[in-house]
Amino acid sequence: MHGLFTIEGFGRHVPDRVLTNAELETMVDTSDDWITSRTGIKERRIVAPGETSSDLAAKAASNALLSAGREAADLSHIFYATFTPDAFCPPASCILQEKLGIRGRACVDMNAACSGFLYAIEAARGTLALRPGSTVLVTAAEVTTSRTNWADRATCVLFGDGAGAIVVSDREPKPGQAVIEDVVLKADGSLWPLLTVKGGGSGWPMKLGDTIKDEFFIEMNGPEVYKNAVRSMGSVCEEIVEKNGLVMDDIDLFIPHQANLRIIEAVGKRLKFSGNRVMVTVDRYGNTSAASVAIALADAVAEGRVKPGARVLLTVFGGGFTWGAALLKFV
Description:
CATH superfamily of the largest domain: Thiolase/Chalcone synthase
Number of helices: 10
Helix content: 25-40%
């Protein structure tokens, strides 16, 4: 793929409500020590009653547009990564467009589970290659708590809500902006049963009067997900770095999917990243699925973690299984 793919602006938004481990101790049989030692998570954000995925996305998108010095009217496409849209129909991207006060743009929701942000970035690159001059909003927003079983202590401690967004164009980058150098995406559908949210889909339909069952919520084989996540993210990062003629020492900041601190540390150890070279937000946000890397990227920019010339490596892993990596270079 040829052309210039510039991230002009970065934004994120998380709900105000903080759910701490201490509060979870009153809701389910768990403890702060147990959660912290196994996941590194201390707290997570959860939506207010009635607050939706597109509400979070609209605020993140507005922040990204402000960062880019752009107006919503400048957008030509909206790509929205989520597995927790406001509804099955209409697409959350259409609802987001209305909340941004524009009409007539191409809108599409994308579900690659926790990998959705990078899949949407690749779609933005493809759009710009096919239609030069486009300006694409890529957002990832999740209300994972809407699909969290609060009686399942193995999963309910992990997830949080939030949204991140970027504005992508083929304009020459300005200081503080970044060029998308490459994206590599992977999937293995044979492993789909290991991480699921089945209930309500056409394979697990619901009819009037049915009670909500466990399959309506996130179900996960934790040990198998852990093994596959570490192996897959490590491998795809090695692939993209080698493909672009680089070595790991060329990477200034590593931003992995924020699922679990043990996974982050295991992947970092394999790739020889540690300390300030690794962006960690899972301790304060939990796993926000598709939004996790989008939020972490916006936080890294806001915190001054990326200097001019910095090269940033992103990697993701999610249900499907899906995974991938992306290389960014800041100007």
